[in-house]
Amino acid sequence: MNTPSALPRRIRLLAVAGARPNFMKIAPLMKELLRRADRFEPILVHTGQHYDQAMSESFFRDLAIPEPDVNLGVGSGTHGEQTAQVLVAIEKLLLERRPDVVLVVGDVNSTIAATLAAVKLHIPVAHVESGLRSGDRAMPEEINRILTDAVSDWLFTTEPAAETNLLREGVAPERIHFVGNVMIDTLLAHRERARALDTLDRLGLEPGGYAVLTLHRPSNVDSPDQLRRLFRVLSRLGDRLPVVFPVHPRTRNAIENNLKGERIQLRMTEPLGYLEFLRLLMDAQMVLTDSGGIQEETTALGVPCLTLRDSTERPVTVSEGTNTIVGTDPGAIEAAIEKQLGCKTVERRRPALWDGEAAVRIVEILERDLGRRIDGSSGSDAGTQSQNR
Ligand code: UD1
Asked: Looking at the chain, which terminus has fewer C-beta neighbours within 10 angstroms, N or C?
């Protein structure tokens, strides 16, 4: 009961993270939620989509993310299996914990599964990194993004194109909040710690004298022919300067199964922790990647990025940042590498609101909207939908 003398009930927020790119997004949000522990009661759930020490635990340690309250331990599987397992497990948890809101980030299978479980229980969902669209429905993440946005209540966006996409899909403007980029909150908060690491010395690299490569998209690594074509052109770059290549488990499996005997002139390493990887990105001459997040990180750092995909869902990294969409054709990649090797200057602007304060903005909006709702009601209102906002 709310009496004039009673303290308002805290907002019970269940935050979900599952795969590597989620962890750097959830970190600043958890920090901000815990800073406002008088108003929020956060519950952190790890779905277990990623589980290796190098893919999960090391990020919790590097980024000081609190130990998850619950780990659902779903592990790997087909899309159907993985999504379904998170859906079933998280529904049970939501029924037990009855949060006021579920907070999801990014576009992985854990994101859509948690969202679906929540909305069916009439628990409102806040989606961080909403509205990004590559236009490529063959990407599993694109489907996750479209579906998550369609049923979320708060749509927190990182760049102007996201709002345009959401409005085009018929989302009510009052649900859209342009807040900036939580991934860049994390980068700015950890840049100096990363700079102090001896990673370059340890790997025998000179600042500006090496490239960094990451590859893990199914469209690039699951087809043996495509992977072989990519490795041939990238190994030719490796003949000219060191190319450090931390290998994602999906890619490692593909190399082991499909590329036996192939010449690979790349400095392959295990997946790196957040700080070590950031240290490498900072002083790279160029970065080659098919990741979404790395396109943003290189833009924030002012490091040239060649994206080995045909499209991007993050166009601000091209229009204002340092990103070039090169595609996956070996000839086009070779030409882009050649051009980049001959280019000495980098032009870029930091995109609006990529200033380290995105998590603060998000938590303020949730506190304002949910606080109002909770202070005006007694007990849990987990059944209240966003139409009431
Ligand atoms: C997932 C996300 C992708 C994200 C990527 C970052 C989806 C649809 N995809 O792709 O958006 O960019 O994470 O890493 O959610 N594996 C391990 N150890 C682990 C995790 C995975 O060995 O800790 C191996 C397993 O063989 C697994 C494979 O990697 O089958 C793929 O993992 P999965 O989570 O299914 O997809 P990712 O390719 O990692």
From this structure: N
Quote the CA–CA distance of 373 and 235 in Å, as a whole number: 58
127 is known as an active-site residue? no
Query: The whole model's pTM is what?
Result: 0.94
List, in sequence order, the alpha helices (H) in the chain: 20-35, 58-62, 79-97, 109-120, 140-151, 160-168, 182-195, 199-203, 218-221, 224-238, 249-258, 274-282, 293-301, 316-319, 330-341, 358-375
pLDDT tens digit sequence for 304-346: 999 999 999 999 999 999 999 999 999 999 999 999 999 988 8
Top mutation candidate among 16, 47, 50, 145 for ligand 1, by most atoms within 8 Å of CB: 50
| CATH (one of 3.40.50.1370, 3.40.50.720, 3.40.50.150, 3.40.50.2000) for 189-341 | 3.40.50.2000
pLDDT tens-digit readout, 282-307: 999 999 999 999 999 999 999 999 99
pLDDT digits (tens, 9 = 90+) for 132-144: 999 999 999 999 9
Determine whether domain 11-180+353-375 maps to CATH 3.40.50.300: no
* Sequence spans of domains, the chain: 11-180+353-375, 189-341
Residue keyed to tokens 């509205």: 131
Residue nearest to atom 31 of ligand 1 (CA): 250
Of 354, 378, 384, which Cα lies nearest the Cα of 188?
354
The model's pLDDT over 371-384, given as tens digits with 9 standing for 90+, comes to 988 877 644 444 33
What is the residue whose two structure tokens read 């003949």?
239
